[in-house]
Every structure is written in structure tokens, then in C-alpha cells.
Amino acid sequence: MTDAKPVLHLDNIVKTFPGVRALDDVSFSVMPGEVHALMGENGAGKSTLMKVLGGIYQPDGGAIYMGDERVVMAGPLEAKAKGIVFIHQELSLAEELSVAENIYLGELPRKSFGRVDWGLLTEKTNAILKKLNVGFDARTRVGDLSIANQQMVEIARALTVDAKAVIFDEPTASLTDAEKVVLFDVISDLKADGVGIIYISHRMEEIFKITDRISILRDGQYQGTVNTSDTTEESLTQMMIGRKLDLSRNASHHELGDVALEVRGLSCGKLYSDVSFQVRRGEVVGFYGLVGAGRTEIAETLFGLRDAHSGQILLDGEEVRINSPADAIQRGISLVPEDRKGQGLVLGMNCRDNMTLPQVDDLTAGPFVAEGAEVAIFDQYRDRLDIRTPGWKQQVGNLSGGNQQKIVIGKWLSMHPSVLIVDEPTRGIDVGSKSEIHKLLRELAAQGYAVMVISSEMPEVLHVSDRIVAMYSGRIMRTFTSEEVTEDSLIQAISGLGGDKAA
Amino acid sequence: MQPNTLSRALANGAIWGFIVLELIFFSVAGSYLSISDQAFMDYDNMLLLLKQSAPIGIIAMGMTLVMVNGNIDLSVGATFAIAAIVLLDSMTWPIFAGLGDWVIPVAWLLSLLVGTLLGALNGLIVWKTGVDAFIVTLGSMLGYRGIVFMFNGENPTSHLNWTLVDFAEAEFLGLATASWFLLAVTAGIWFLMARTVHGRNAYAIGDNREAAVNAGIRVGPHMMINFAIIGFLAALSAVVFYSESGSVNPNDGQLYELWVITAVVLGGTKITGGAGNVIGTFGGVIAIQLLRKGLGHIGADTSTVNLVIGLILIAVLFLDRQLNIKGKEELKV
Amino acid sequence: MATLTKQQIGSVLAKQGILIAFVIFMIAFTIANPKFLTMDNVFSVVRSSAILGVMALGVTFVVISGNLDLSVGSMMSFSTIVVLDLHDKIGPFMAIPAMFAMTLCLGAFIGFLVGYLRLNSLIVTLGMLSAIHGLTLTYSGGQNMDIADKEGTWFSVFGQGTALGIPVPILIFIALAALLGLTLAKTPFGRKVYAVGGNGTAATFSGIPRARTVFFCYLISAACVATAGLIQASRSLGSQNTVGQGLELEVLAAVILGGASLLGGSGTVFKTVIGVLILGFIQNGLLLMGLQFYIQFVVTWVIIILAVWLDIAAKRGKLWSAIA
Fold first, then answer.
1. Within a domain: residue C177?
2. Residues of B numbered 236-295 whose beta carbons fall under 8 angstroms of chain C's beta carbons: which are they?
3. How far is CA A271 from CA A17, A285, A295, A475, A503, in A?
4. pLDDT digits (tens, 9 = 90+) for A269-294
């Protein structure tokens, strides 16, 4: 590998935004036929770096080389013309158009009078699709494809140009295991063709399975590049966060109270079925499973956002019907939703108003909102949760992810719920806030809250839970106590392999 | 995937089913209620209907393009009026005095040019300022209408040129000039949207603008071209209509944008862009015109037409939503 | 003295731009014609803006909730015609509540369609524009509506009367603006309107009844329209059935000029009032300058686009859009 020229070399790239040095002297190379992982916490600068590579941002310093040649990416088109292709995490497809039109978007073959050359288009597309060995053809409407197949369309797009470097941004986020296998096959084909690949992912097992080298960013700074075979998960984590993250097993124990929430035989069509579990006061129950296992949907049902078709929900031993979030709130159930920006916050509103939104009807003085009482609530939870903001007037859209999440948590704690459901509590927030939130969840349990934590991160579930409910495809496969759970048995249970069904 | 396909098939075919229903209803109801002895589905009546559909229909084809593109144009009625004034007034300008009947093509071109420029101006503003097309064209709807009134106050602008009237009233293969224009524009925009790179890009931009930008499509100029096209078609509509009538009131074309948008939405174009086609829009135009004529045929007045069309527009929206509901498992947000 | 950074200037402009523009306009017009800023003239402008203004107050709620209302013009024609017709039939004392009830029914119907059925508000209110116009024509039989005894009715007080030396339409406008301004800025309901318009999903996830909130916004809009219709009817004591035609767009222009975003979640009643006054004073100022009446439309066009453009330019920190 040493004598070959890198397909892509970044030399001391600097990018600043007003007040922030987003990228600070970042340098690394991608060799032909190499799968090069790029890792870092959210906000470490990965996406800024990719935008520089894709010509969406211009760097303020440093240079990009392809082979020996210094290149300037004036825009997305130019990056593409030079053979740099992106497979985006969020699919950027036009659903109403055909597969072929999406693959050749922006460069449909022309005939006279500006006509599309359909024959050529279909022919070229089918040739690529054949290489990918997919089960749809050029004329299929993209909106009719599954998410995984839509991703295949994105990948097919990469193959239309003479790609020198392909950048995969979290490509497996929404793929099933079988679909991942297909994706990894495609990557190894590209690799065999001498294409350089940048692979951005948080998932350690994938990183160790398919990459050759790993470069790490932290706070916009380049931390170094290591050979995958020479490193360990621990040392990578340490490079990413700058210190050791405490993700030991949950060790704290306290007395559990009565059963606060019980679910019996709850079913909702294909989403989940025959789900039964209990959550006691003082207990954190972790829900672990793959995306689509039905965990979020159960939470939504408990919060009155989704009707169950059958089954019972009991609060403090009494059967209840929850038809709307207002019902749920009134009965002492709170939900910190999974999508913070889409579901948790009104980004254009200030911190105080967001925090008191669910109780605005109760915080009144005469016909008006009692703003003094609101500020008092905000101050109380700002101090308790250590929310860093210049003041309550700040729009939440301007806060960091961790502080935003604390606003959402504060919003629901201020309702004094008896059951607190937290869906993906630390998705997309920095490591510091992450461990604070973990600590908080344990503290809340100790204070007697019944807490349900839904998470897709195994270390997190192991760290915070007293018991772990493993779900697969809408069913509870097994419930573990924190003493008996092992990583292997947990993985087996959520993959639908073995594991006896027990509640 | 199945219900999705079904709802799309229904959306594409529904407008024609609706037209058939209208025909049956008005034929049957007409035989009891009509004041005239003439049958509703009379051949001449249908030809007349096509001709009367032309002014709205021609603009609606442009609106389909603009709405599929993810924009909207509220200024078409005002553009229509300006183009009409340019058409009629320019024929009286002294500099063209020596041209004789050759003034007609000159006036036509001038009128079409003005329409195109007004459309392009909307597009340029949308492109360069980044202000939403709804607001931009809401503004120019007022502005362009103001220009119309500034020209001649509340007075009509008139000029009759008999050669022109003869041309406009001519028939070719049994179809009136206006009908031919409508069919030609429909075919032209169909070709543009279904067959050309520009047209396919219009869908891509309306469907997923960011994806289009990432794919290197130059969205700004693209949208400006589409606004220029709808401006051109608004002017063409005026040219076709006023060649025959020879007199334009400053209020003419008012509420055209509403009729046009109604036709386009009835024809199945998605309000948020990315989906729709001119064949559906053609159906929408015909359906509205049928309704107007049919209600007239059974003795209802214009007030009923307004009432019925408004309610039908809402009903279509409601049906579309019902067809797209995924069932009981849906999240209640 | 601290120097202002470009960004700070930008943010001040973004927040108070419309107020600054208003002041500049007033000064410019006053210099051009001293008559402009006299009490008489100001009264006459505000009085003639009152109908538009009252309607704009209601539409502000609808727009902040993330929706549109294009039906207010034809709804205003409806209430004007209805109240004039009922005036002679059942007397003004009964006619007014009856007209309000009928207009509120229309508002409730739209609120049901947009709020509870979640239909696209642009198309629904476009349809209602046409439908209500048809309803009005049917109701009036296509005839103009006139009160028989124009001299002998107290009904004219809403449009023509004065109290404390101030014309009643102005008083109604001010009172409604104060009431609705407080409702929007200070009450739980107002907070919910902002939340629903800012992020409807997040509002739902916070237990806010989204459908009901939108529904009430349309009811408020209808109540404002009914009030505007009352002023209109009372001022003229007779009316064509197209009296409100086209007003929906002027109303929307005033609301947008006030800085409410069509995406919802932003705007205030106070800024809408400024938007209404700007439109009114421009019209008046141009006339006083001896310019043709219709040039106001062209000026309004330019001002709307400039206002919205500068607003979003300040937010994105760049004058020109990033569209390629």
C-alpha cells in the first residue's frame, strides 16, 4: 500500500464559522482499495469535513489532493466529476421518479429537442442494477421501494461515475442484517476495483469487520489514524472522547417500590403483539432491540399517540384507557421522545416556553400565563440539570444537542410524572452530556420514579437498567435482570435467535 | 406498497370518472330540468365547451409545470390582463401604423414577450431573493394589477381588428382556433414534462429539492424558466381570447388564478410538488367547464357553480386524504 | 461607545425592521407633505384601514398556527349581505347576533376541515372562497342589498359614529387589537397557537390539542370577519355582494408585511397592526403626493417583497439566496 498514490489526500484542512473552528488542521489519506473509517462523536466535524470534500463548503485553509494533483471543489457537480461520490445517510431521492431517473439525476442522457434518451438511460441503469444484483428494475418508482432498496439506488448512483472515492455516511442506520450483507458485498467489490472508500459510522462491530484503517476527529481536530487490526474498541473510544467513558454495568441498587405501570397482552397490528411487562417505582427498565422492533410504538401507545388493538394498561394496579397525550400527562406518564428536534421541541420558541409547554394551562394568573412561575420552573430545572444557556429567552434551536435534550427532560420532570419514558435519551449528543444523563436516570429511579429507557446502544442499556426487556420484531423475546444479562444472550434475543420467551 | 399504487391509479383516473359522472348526471337531469330542448351531450355543445375551456386551460398547463416544480403562481390573472392590454393597445400605436394587417403578428409577439418577461421577473425574484413563490406572486398579483389600472384607469381598452376576429373565429377541422391552441399547448407541455430533461428535472426539484441541488441541477434558473413559461402561457391565453373579443376591462382575469389552481388540483397535481401531469389537468379543466355549463343547462345560476366547485375541491382533497391513510396503526399526530 | 457588529445590526433589522421602515415612511411622507401627519389625516387613514385591519387580526392567528385563510374576503361579503338583509327583516338588534352566528358556522366548518381533518388550508380556503361567494350570491339572489330606511336606524353607529371624538371603527379596531394581542401574547391559548405553528408534532407530543387550537384560530378569524362585515354594512348601509372580493390577499399582505412567516410560529398582533397601517399610510401618502391611486398596488408589491426579503436575508446572514 505504501508505494501507491493516495486517491484522496487532505492536507491541513481548516474551516471556521463565526466563533467556531469547525475543522482545525485535518489531514489524512485514503489509498486505492482501502476502506478508511472516519470516526468521531457528533459535532466532531465529520459532516463539515464531508461538505468540504463535496464542494458544499470551501475550506479556509489547507488543500485537497487527488493523486498528485491539487484539486479545488467548487461545487457538488465538480466533486462528482472528479470521481468523489457520496452515499448520504438521509436518502436524497425523488420518490415520484423512476429508479433510472434518480440514478442519473442531474445528468439524464439527452437527445434532440432536450428529450431524455430513455433507451440509453434504461440500458445503462439496468447494467448497473445487474452488477448490484437487486430485485427491481430501471422503471420502478423509487417511492415503491423499501428503504434498503432505496439505499441501493443511492449506491447505484455512485457506480455511474468513474468513482475514485466513495463516501458512505452511516449507511447501515436503517438496514436489516441481510441488507447489510449485500451492502458489504458492494463495498468489497468497489474495493477490489481500487476505489478508495471513506466509511463513517458509530458502529464498532462494522468498523472492525470491514475497514482497513481508522481516522479519528474530536472537536474539529485530527486525532490520528490507526490500523484497524492494531486497535481496540477502548482505545478508539478514548481517542474520540479524550478520556475513558464509564459504561460499566449498573451497580447501584436501591429498594424497589410497588408496580407503577403494568402492560398485559398489548397488541397493535404488525407493530407489536402480545406485549406484557411491569415497571416498579425506583426501577429503570431498559428496552433493547433493533430499529423497528416495536419499542417506540409501545411508548407511543402508552403516551396516547397510538391506539392499541387489544390488551390492557394498568397504572398503580388500575386499568386505564389513554386516548391522547393529555390523558397520559394527566395520569402521570411522561414521554421524552426519540426525535428531539422533530417531536421534542419547538425550535423557534425560547427555553422557558418549551419547558413549560405541557402545563401552560395550569400556570395561570387570571386569564394569563403566569410568566413569573414559568421562569421559576425554568430556573429550578436549569440548575438541577445543569443546562447551559445564556438565559430563558434563548431560542432552543441555538442550544447544543445535549442542552436541548436536557430542556426536554426538564420539561417532563417538571410535570412530576410517576412513569417516565425516555426514548433514545442520548442520541446525537456529546459524551459529557451523555454520562450526565445516564447519572440523572439512575438518580430519578432512586427518587422513586418508574423509568422506561428505550435505547439502541447496548452499553447504555447495560449501564442504566435494573432489568432489560429484549424485543425482536414486535415481540418481547426475553426479560433479563442486570445480574443475569450477558452481551451474547442479549444480542441473541434481539436478533430473534434462540432465547426462550419469558416475561 | 399496494394501497399506495391503488390510490395513485385512482388519483390518475378519478378525474375522468368524475367527468363521465357529470355527463351522465347533466344529460339525465337536463332532460327533466332543462329549459331548452337541446340535449346536453350535443356535439356542438361539446365543441363549444372545449373552446370555452381554452383561456383557463392554457394557463392551467403552465400552472401544472410550476406546481409540480414545487412553486405556485398567483399572478397569472394579472399577467393575462396586462398581456391583453398590450395586444389591443399596441395595434393602435402610430409606429406600427404603416404595417396594415402585419400589425397582428407584431402585437401578438409583443404581448407574448411582455407575458414572458413578467413571468421571468417573478422567477428571478424567487431565485435571487429566496422568498417563497407564494409571497412573490401574491405581491406581483397586486403589482401587475396595479399596472393594468394605471394604464387606463377603470376604463376598458378596446380595439377591434376584423382580420384578427376572423382568424379567432375560424374553424379548422371542426375545431375553433382557441381549441387548437389549448390542444397544442397541452401537447407541448406534456412533451416538455414527460419527455424532456428539463421536465424530468422539474419533477425532481418539486419532489426533493435538496437531492436535485446535490445532483448539480441549477434550481434557480430552472425555476425561472418555468415562471417564464407560465407567463408566456398567460399571455397566450390573453392573445387567444382577446383576438376575438377586442375589448379588455381592467378587472379581467381576476380570480383566474383560483380557477386555474382548482383545475390543476382537481387534475391530481400534488400541492407540495413532485407529482402531477397535464393530462390530469386537462381533465380538471374540462370537468370545471362541464360543471359550469351543466349547471347552466339545468337552470342553475353562477352562484351554484361557485358553491359546487368550491365544495368539490374540498371533497377531492378529503377523498385523497382518506385514500392515503394507512389505517388504524397510524400515529395520531 | 460600543460599535455595532454587522450581525447585531442584522438582528436588530430582522426584529424591528418593519417598525423602522414604518417610521422612515412616516417621516418621508411628512416631509413631502406636511398635511400627512395631521390628526384629521391620521384618523381618516386609520378609519379606512379598520376593516382590513380587523380582518388581518384574525388572519394573524391562522397564519401563526401554520395555516392560511384565503376565504376571508368572500366571507366578509357574506356577513355584510346577511346583516343588511336581516336588518330589515328582524331588526338590527337580532340581525347582528344572527349574522355572527352564521359567519362563525362558516369559520367552524373551515376549522373542522383544516384542524380536525388535517386538509391543506390553502386549498380548503380556496374552495371556501368560491363556495361562500356562491352562497352569498344565492342568498342575495344576485341583487345588491340595501337598508330601506337609511336615516332612521341606529345601525349606522358601527361604521359612521364617533365616541369621545374618535370614529367608532377605529375604536373597534383598537379594542379588538388589544384583546387579541393580549390573547396571543399572554394567554395559554396564544402560547399553544405559537407551539402548534412552530412545530405541530412537538406540540402534540407535549399534550397540546393541535386540532382544537387550529379550529379556534379559524373561529377567531371568522369572528373578526363578521366584525369587519358589520363595520362595512354599517358604514354604507347598502352593499354589492362582491364587496370583500380580493380583500383576502390584501389582508394576507398586511400580515406578511408585519413579519409573520407563512410557515407558522412567528408574528404578533402588534406587527400586523403596523403592517395594516403601513399599507394604509402608503396609499394615503401617495395620494397626497398627487400620484395616481393605482400606483399604491405597485408600491405595495415592492414593499411586500422587500420586507420579506430583508427579513429572511437578515436571518440567513446573506442578502442573496443560496439557490444555485
1. yes
2. 254-255, 258, 261-262, 265, 271
3. 44, 20, 9, 9, 19
4. 888 999 999 999 999 999 998 777 88
